[in-house]
UniProtKB/TrEMBL annotation:
Gene3D superfamilies: NAD(P)-binding Rossmann-like Domain (3.40.50.720), TolB, C-terminal domain (2.120.10.30). Residues 5-77 form the NmrA-like domain. It comes from the Bacteria. Residues 140-162 are annotated as: Disordered. It comes from Nonomuraea mangrovi. Pfam families: NmrA (PF05368). The lineage of its organism: Bacteria, Bacillati, Actinomycetota, Actinomycetes, Streptosporangiales. This is NmrA family NAD(P)-binding protein.
Length: 430
């Protein structure tokens, strides 16, 4: 089984870095992007990158982006501060437990030549060679895996009775896990496995979650019919939104196209929080779902993620196993899975054109992460493999950090008591 590498690209909104992200599409990498302004995060997000905000002028802003990476593509033009930028990047890369190999540009003129070559060179290796010069910062230059993989815990113990469901990771090596029991948020350090409650819940669930580069945690409120935005550093609730007043199951959330989008497994709608300039809105918008996705008995729209080209959304319907592409207007179209389905489909995670879909196994007893390869528009997909683990016990959602996927065991089929134990499981990224 191959183990993907975590790759960081600096200056990720520039022409060359954008072309590089295109070149890496389809490669077995976990892509990160370092940008200067959070308002420009949409482009890298649409490329499937995890986005970090930092400034090469300020070394202290860099460690979260560099944590857990194996390769850095330091793309900066020549200038009076170029050497300082390189030194700051090297300092961040050489912090304890960081690997590794840094790749940096050899000047603007060569980058421009590299960009021109991109148009004609098809093989990824040739593209990268034309763009960059590799220099060793520390560790083995050819290392294929994160050296911490042997020491970081492969499971994270959660409080008894916690009833975990959603997970989000970042910025940095921190996982945020929500409780179905009371909506509390548990923050765990992935390097040690230790953690604590960072935000006490409102008494209603916290389900799907996502973080943004500002460190804000967007939380789906399940049967509470609401959504919250939490400061992931302090646990303070920054905003709360009443999405509906009737029966609801606000299940998952994704950040893309300048908005937070929430699914509702009970009502055929999406809830949209426009984030113009990163500002939180006064209220949410309702986007009715039309087209191929038809609601029935049980759990309907569940996990949500962007399409690979960033122009739409993808939703899994738990009770049918169907996968659907959704226009931003709410029009749905069934994704052609060539006879396959995603039974008990739950959380979704997109990296480039690779989609990881959690099949929680509530109905059929077979918990797995299904790996699919999508086309750019998200209208066609093929199942590549299904991966299971003996430690799975109804995993619900998935998030990635470095060469691993992390899944909290929701244990939906186990009797829930205040003393029921729970864990989140780490597996190598397929």
């Amino acid at each position: 089984m191959s183990v993907s590498r975590t790759v960081l690209i600096t200056g990720a909104t520039g022409t060359v870095s954008t072309a590089l992200m295109h070149a890496l599409d389809g490669a077995d990498v976990d892509l990160r992007a370092l940008i200067h302004e959070e308002s420009r995060a949409d482009g890298p997000h649409e490329q499937g990158a995890e986005v970090f905000v930092g400034d090469l002028d300020d070394a202290r802003s860099l460690p979260p982006a560099f944590e857990g990476v194996q390769d850095v593509w330091l793309l900066t033009p020549n200038g009076p501060r170029a050497s300082e930028h390189s030194m700051n990047a090297v300092w961040a890369a050489r912090l304890p437990s960081l690997d590794k190999k840094q790749r940096h540009s050899t000047g603007l003129t060569e980058l421009e030549r590299g960009h021109q070559m991109m148009r004609s060179v098809r093989r990824l290796g040739a593209v990268l060679a034309a763009l960059t010069l590799a220099v060793t910062v520390g560790g083995s230059a050819g290392a294929a895996s994160d050296p911490r993989a042997g020491t970081s815990p492969t499971s994270i113990s959660l409080p008894d009775g916690f009833r975990p469901e959603g997970i989000a990771i970042g910025p940095g090596p921190f996982a945020f896990i929500g409780s179905m029991a009371d909506g509390s948020i548990y923050r765990a350090d992935l390097r040690t496995g230790r953690g604590a409650i960072v935000s006490r819940g409102p008494g209603t669930p916290s389900l799907g979650m996502k973080t943004d580069p500002r460190g804000r945690l967007f939380v789906a409120g399940g049967t509470g019919g609401d959504a919250r935005v939490i400061d992931s550093r302090t646990g303070r609730v920054l905003a709360s939104y009443r999405l509906t007043t009737g029966a609801a199951f606000v299940n998952d959330v994704i950040l893309t196209q300048g908005a937070a989008w929430f699914t509702d497994s009970t009502n055929p709608v999406l809830y949209k929080l426009p984030l113009r300039g990163g500002r939180l809105p006064a209220a949410a918008q309702r986007i009715p779902l039309t087209g191929d996705l038809v609601y029935g008995a049980g759990f309907n729209a569940n996990g949500i993620t962007p399409t690979p080209d960033g122009q739409g959304l993808i939703i899994v319907q738990s009770n049918t196993g169907g996968l659907f592409r959704v226009d931003l207007s709410g029009r749905t179209r069934r994704v052609n899975l060539h006879g396959e389905s995603l039974p008990d489909g739950d959380g979704l995670l997109l990296r480039g054109r690779t989609l990881f879909a959690v099949e929680n196994g509530v109905q059929n007893g077979r918990s797995a992460v299904t790996v699919l390869r999508l086309n750019a528009t998200g209208t066609d997909g093929r199942v590549v493999r299904r991966v299971s683990d003996p430690r799975f016990d109804i995993p619900a959602t998935v998030a990635a950090f470095g060469p691993r996927l992390y899944l909290p065991n929701a244990r939906f089929t186990t009797k829930q008591t205040p003393r029921t134990p729970y864990i989140a499981v780490a597996i190598p990224r397929p």
